[in-house]
Amino acid sequence: MKNVAWIGTGVMGKPMALHLANAGYEVSAYNRTFEKAKAMEPKVHAFKSIEETVKNADVVFTIVGYPKDVESVYEEIMKYAKKGAILVDMTTSSPSLAVSLSKKAHEMGYEMLDAPVTGGDLGAINGTLSIMVGGDKDIYDEVYPLLEVMGKTINYMGKNGNGQHAKLANQAAIAGAISATAEALHYANYHEIDMNTMLNVIVGGSASSWQAANNGPKMIQKDYAPGFFVKHFLKDLKLILDEKGPLYLPVVENVTKMYQVLSDNGYSEDGTQAIIEYYLQELK
């Protein structure tokens, strides 16, 4: 499996594809904005069409924006990829869509995994992502050496769709952690406690989390450069609500409303740490 096609060379996809190229794989890349893929040459081969990108690939990876993008991209991939190719969607997308695409892929002579990631842009750059994989276990084992190049924590979650369900469960945990960090800092600030000192308390004790340690300082500094966009996190939270069935998920429901307000107030292109503005501005 030396020939790899990579669709989507954004904040996450670009470093992930480069890790594979640096590991010795022949990587062909496509992005809707061709210049983004072209900028990765000579380490990868950039193409202007999905057809050219995937036609010789043993494995096709995708990491795009939204479920509608996943659906349209795979419509093209399944027209042109060679039979027997393994298709791996690393977008955070709909579990239901992952199941339907895997059935279609199997009918058309492909194998397919859903393998969303967590760890943000730094995890992608450093090759330390956590990857959650749904699909046939034998296909997972076959692709594992490639996943190992991009991630540090790789877990097989079971059948197709379960990778996406695992990612959405992870996003539910993030929703609680990032909103709690912002709320704690806002409370401390109101009572005239230095927020940096308060964050030291949080990170140094049992309330610590990745969100507090990494996004807490950015909240204080009002550094909203996106490691993970508000618009993409809002998409993930809405996917959880779409897939929750009869479950009562009050944290996700409340945090979804907060991020929707942020988006409505012009923060959709900022990083998720901008949630502190929901509190500071008392946005409604």
TrEMBL record:
The keyword Ribosomal protein does not apply. Keywords: NAD, Oxidoreductase. It comes from the Bacteria. The keyword Magnesium does not apply. InterPro entries: 6-PGluconate_DH-like_C_sf, 6PGD_dom2, 6PGDH_NADP-bd, HIBADH-like_NADP-bd, HIBADH-related, NAD(P)-bd_dom_sf. The active site is at residue 167. Residues 3-158 form the 6-phosphogluconate dehydrogenase NADP-binding domain. Residues 161-279 form the 3-hydroxyisobutyrate dehydrogenase-like NAD-binding domain. GO terms for molecular function: NAD binding; NADP binding; oxidoreductase activity. Belongs to the HIBADH-related family. This is NAD(P)-dependent oxidoreductase.
